[in-house]
Design brief:
By secondary structure, the protein is an alpha/beta fold. The chain has helices at about 10-25, 40-55, 90-95, 100-120, 145-155, 175-180, 215-220; strands at about 35-40, 55-60, 65, 75-80, 85, 135-140, 165-170, 190-195. Helix 5 links the parallel strand 6 and strand 7. The protein is globular.
């Protein structure tokens, strides 16, 4: 089994930001052209450090899995904050999932997305704040890639960001390859380690404790978000 690489998420974020500073143009850093978009909950700890070091705005994106009718743990797609959804065509063809099931699941997941966005950022609207920006999409690691892949597709097709940089500490090689296929020629995927075998993200962290909603809210408040308690 692969030995521990990171002490905790903060350590991973500090290593990750070194790569980002090397990659980004000097004039981009400390400007309003960068938005660090994190995936709750663990990704917000990564995003907190990255946004501080890049003097960038921190935000969150929530996507929710659409589970298969016969097994909810099998992801047939994902829903994003504006109701946009992306489907896994291969699985859809195999399972022959009816559209009315998908529509119902989109509505269910969208309600949960709205609840989380209101809780974490005080608003479900992104307006046009991501349009034309360099978006650094971060998480504390990738397993299957379903969440971050759907978020990347949403950013490129619906939010019209100028440049997308996907930045994570660790991910399996096949998922990294898939991400590189999805992002455009002007976009980048930064993964510090892609070890094999890849069993679980927690194996690469000495401390990979669960992050609570309260911790996410505290971070977001520190970045200027007006969030109601409770």
């Amino acid at each position: 089994m692969q030995s521990v690489i990171f002490h905790d998420r903060v350590d991973a974020a500090n290593q990750l930001v070194e790569k980002l500073i090397w990659l980004l143009k000097k004039e981009q850093i400390a400007s309003s052209s960068i938005v660090v978009l994190s995936i709750p909950r663990g990704g917000v700890v990564i995003g907190d450090v990255v946004a501080d070091k890049l003097h960038a705005k921190l935000d969150v994106v929530v996507s929710r899995k659409i589970g298969a009718p016969i097994d909810p743990e099998v992801a047939i797609g994902a829903v994003l904050p504006d109701g946009t959804y992306f489907l896994n065509d291969d699985i859809m063809q195999t399972l022959n999932v009816p559209q009315n099931y998908i529509d119902a699941q989109v509505n269910v997941q969208l309600r949960e997305i709205t609840r989380r966005l209101m809780s974490f950022r005080g608003s479900k609207e992104y307006d046009s704040e991501l349009k034309g920006k360099t978006v650094v999409l971060v998480d504390d690691g990738i397993a299957t890639g379903a969440t971050i892949i759907s978020a990347a597709q949403w950013l490129k097709t619906k939010q019209n960001c100028e440049e997308l940089i996907i930045a994570v500490p660790v991910a399996p090689r096949d998922t990294v390859d898939r991400l590189k296929q999805i992002v455009g020629n002007n976009d980048k995927v930064i993964v510090l380690y892609s070890p094999e075998p890849f069993i679980a993200m927690g194996q690469f962290y000495r401390d990979f404790g669960q992050i609570s909603d309260g911790e996410v809210k505290k971070i977001m408040k520190n970045h200027g978000y007006k969030i109601k308690d409770g």
